[in-house]
Amino acid sequence: MQKRWTIPGADTAKTQQLFDELKIHPVICKILVQRNIDSFEKAKDFFRPKLNQLYDPWLMKDMQKAVDRILLAFTQKEKILVFGDYDVDGTTSVACMYQFLLSQSTPELIDYYIPHRYREGYGISKMGIDFAKEHQFSLIISLDCGIKSTDLIQYAKELNIDFIVCDHHLPDSVLPPAVAILNPKQPECDYPFKELCGCGVGFKLITALAKTLGLPDETTYPFLDLVATAIAADIVPIVDENRILAHYGLIRANTNPCNGIKALKHLSGHEKELHITNLVFLIAPRVNAAGRMDDARKAVQMFIAPSYEEALHYAEMLHSDNDERKEADASITEEALAMINENEALQKRKTTVVYQPHWHKGVVGIVASRLTEYYYRPTIVLTQSGEYAAGSARSVNGFNLYEAIHACREHLLGYGGHFAAAGLTLETKNIQLFSDAFETVVASQIPDELLIPEIKIDAEISFADIKPGFYNILQQMEPYGPENMPPVFITRNVTDTGFSKIVKEQHLRLVLKENDIVLTGIFFRAAHYFPVIQQGAVDVVYTIDENEWNGSVSLQLKVMDIRPAKVH
Q1: Residue from 101, 136, 131 nearest 116 by CA
Q2: Nearest residue to 86 (alpha-carbon basis) of 268, 257, 293
Q3: 62 exposed, middle or buried (CB, 10 Å; 0-12, 13-18, 19+)?
Q4: CATH number assigned to the domain covering 4-48+457-564
Q5: What does residue 489 show for φ and ψ, rounded to 5 degrees?
Q6: In the predicted model, is pLDDT for residue 201 greater than 80?
């Protein structure tokens, strides 16, 4: 599929000023300025993050109320239930909070609860509140959920159960009747950083409790590996406070991780240092698979396991769930692609809506993402859920999916989500009506260029720039993630040396030359580009990484796209 290449400019005066101050490669100065790092002080904070730069937890609205209520529970020997969502952010949040409370209380007074994805659904559940009542819990701390659960929190209140809500999702105009709401996105909250994940909000509560109890800051550091895992998995911007937490969380994950992360790393066969991408692609899918395929409680059991052997026991269950998830995901994706490929009318649409009653509910969101990779357009994958059809939607960059679904609400029983992803429920008899309405809305609103995948290129460089010192600074720009992605480069007019080849029938192993400098590269799933590089000079778009082969390490290109070079 043809891709759009965009190359942003940068303020040349600011770039020059930063170069004068930092004395590092001017291209890196340009990239930093593009990312709003345009002074020596900002660069120092960016390259050398410090834990003492974390914001004061008391700046968060209701923090004092939350701390006071928990301390009262400690004093009165009340039972506290830690309640969290079934994904990575929720289970890591619960693991952190549960362990901290346990360190200050007794096991019979503290427990945790993860709702079952299919029996209870997302967020606070009536079953969870009834469980709390039945077992005499008088305080529930909800993590990564609760901000929209006004009616259920009112129900708990009527049962004399108090709620502390720790959430990061956008609140509605009416807030739930909790004794404290910790959410930097709520109105009148002066907390300087709004983009914490759920585990990040929970961590701020833990740090406030630790300070109040007179515990040293180091008491909270063992939780940082889990906080970093949540930041990576929840795809929040890795800037500001998230960058500091992710930086130190990765150090923790690589030097002294909890037994759960250690066990998952072992099972995934990853021997090297963990980076954010490893947390996203190795750790997170295995944790998420528990909730997708079965019961996410075992993810918490793994994270809090006191011994490696016990953690490994639960990690093996998660690993098995993930294998099952991969199988379901692959077969459903194949089936869905066949449905589209066999139907010319579906191929010509600007949206994809597919439905099969037997598809597994736990993977329809992943399948929607896969289909978006193949046919780059807003995509909805539906399956049978009880008497109704339910499913997940994924957008393309720049298009507000939630608004498009909202415009078709007359055909739906329920829906929720945000700009890029959503969930929905409808009667099966309305699927075609909804599908046609969704196509009409999207086709009338989406500009054609948004249906072409975009590659944002940070800078043009020559092969001569790619040296160990240059790459060393790129490594110091980690941890990478949203709003701080790995820099993407373009080099123009490069030629094949004649040594490039197709490997494993689908990938391209490239050996490219610019002037007298030769570099190797890998271009995954791109065997069909082989004729392009054989026909003459090309422009190549890539990130830079290291290649280890037979004990030697060299820099290589991780190629994202290739085009025949324009004759100038």
Answers
A1: 131
A2: 293
A3: buried
A4: 2.40.50.460
A5: -115, 160
A6: yes
